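note to self: the first set is below, dont mix up w the second
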Amino acid sequence: MWILVIGREGVEQREGSAVACLHELGCEVQTATLWDRLDRDDLVKKPPAAVLIEAGDEADAGRAALVRVRAAEPLQEVPVIIGITLNALSRLDVGDGFDDFVLMPYVPAELYMRIRRVEWSRSEFAQQERIKMGPLCIDLAAHEVTIDGRPRQLTHQEFALLSFLCQNRGRVFSRRQLLERVWGVDYYGSSRTVDIHVRRLRMKLGHSVNNLETVRGVGYKMKEP
């Protein structure tokens, strides 16, 4: 994985910089200043795992850099961390849009863990026993669902419906098909049962199932990432 570090001129040369810490940790690092172009061809071909904005005492400069990062198409979905001093921490707001923050001077182990944490929160994968879509993780073997590592309680059928749709992302299923595939061919309940369970999933899981789409006149699908 590689990390993009954004800061003022000479960010890679400053003693104790994130660049030095990340190199020590074995990470590949590229740098950009607060005014560099962020729609470069290399970023389009291979976006970084995370962006670290090294703001130090200048929280406002960090926010301005975040606006530029989000305006660059290759970086719109990349998690962004702000490196900030303790003195400037009170000038940050939870609504600023950063995925996380890390205090300066850096503790290398903490910096690495925060990068891995935001990378994990944005990642998606499907394995035989686990499915991950952003903050949502479904453990098929343990029959558990977590959001950002926090468990959510689902009924047996809610879990079965969620798992089925996530395992078949991109495909549209009618309500009757879902009743047959999730509830079983011997189930003779109303198709309204599916609507009720979809509504409950949306209530319990919130934004983590934004990809659960109603296809008018057809049924439901879990959209591809």
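second set (the one i keep forgetting abt)
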Amino acid sequence: MNRGERLQKVLAQSGIASRRACEELITAGRVKVNGVTVRELGVRAAPGDRIEVDGQPVHGPQKPLYVLLYKPAGCVTTAKDPEGRKTVLDFLSGLGGRVFPVGRLDYETSGVLVLTNDGDLSNMLMHPRYGVMKVYEAVVAGRPKDGVLQTLRDGIELDGATTSPCEVAVLGTDGRSTRLVITLHEGRNRQVRRMLDSVHHACLRLTRVRYGDLTLRGLRPGSWRHLRPDEVAGLRRAAAAGRPFADRRRLR
């Protein structure tokens, strides 16, 4: 099995999952090549090899699909949910192909979500080394003081590491709650909500309004559209332009 493409790449190109998720399938022993269970990531597969995941045959590469979904609140960003909750794939009727989400938005968060079967692009966009711009609008409890806003901009310690500098601006307040716009270049698990919790301003509503150059314009919650070729190219440029977070200076 030293010829052909790496198995995780073949799986990703077939629309099974992102490259990283395919690696997890392999190491978990859920993939077979020509009847033999594979657990090592260095294995390659060639055209004509019989590949199975969980006993189901894997077909050849799909036509590349790139989708922008306005994820509504109240659904999970996975292909299946053991609790039976609605998933983002439930909104993609008529797509005509298999895709997987690029990163995640949590159950109660809405907004821009990219889905694709292009494992290479997905891997670039999700790699922690790179920082595609993500813009969120958050409604938070109370009215954060200037010092609190600066603390958020400078970085919050989460899981033993400080978040990268970000942009935070106030859109409006009624005294009981405040609308913020927050621009990040990283994507830790539930990062915005955890940052706001850490400064004692609970997030009441959260929407990702921009991812790279992609916005929600023309979409309503639960609706989707195919990305244009120039938009796909823009995502590639955004990922390629990323730099390690440690090399970033504070955003101006």
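remember for set 2: Residues 5-57 form a domain with the Structural Genomics Hypothetical 15.5 Kd Protein In mrcA-pckA Intergenic Region; Chain A fold (CATH 3.10.290.10).
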